[in-house]
């Protein structure tokens, strides 16, 4: 996929995810008086907090070297 097409695709997927999450929120006004943008930011931060951290690719390669005789490694490498 072209780089710009991939960026556009990722943006669209993110927008869909957040729109779905917002649609599931109750329609009552929040006691804090937050705007929709603030609600989205809070939701985004909560999702990000649940994501696993980055991993050291060099260390992973040392622990799990690529062996081309294994068919899955040929696909993933």
What does this structure look like?
The protein is an all-alpha fold and 77 residues long. It has a domain at 1-25 and 38-48. The chain is 64% helix and 0% strand. It contains four helices and no strands. The longest helix is centred in the first third of the chain and has 21 residues, at 3-23. It is elongated and about 60 Å long. The relative contact order is 0.07. The model has no long low-confidence stretch (mean pLDDT 80).
Distance between the termini: 18 Å
Write down the Rg.
20 Å
The low-confidence parts are: none
Category by helix and strand content: mainly alpha
Could you state the order of secondary-structure elements as H and E? Answer: HHHH
Which helices and strands occur, and which strands form pairs?
Blueprint: H1 3-23, H2 36-50, H3 57-63, H4 71-76
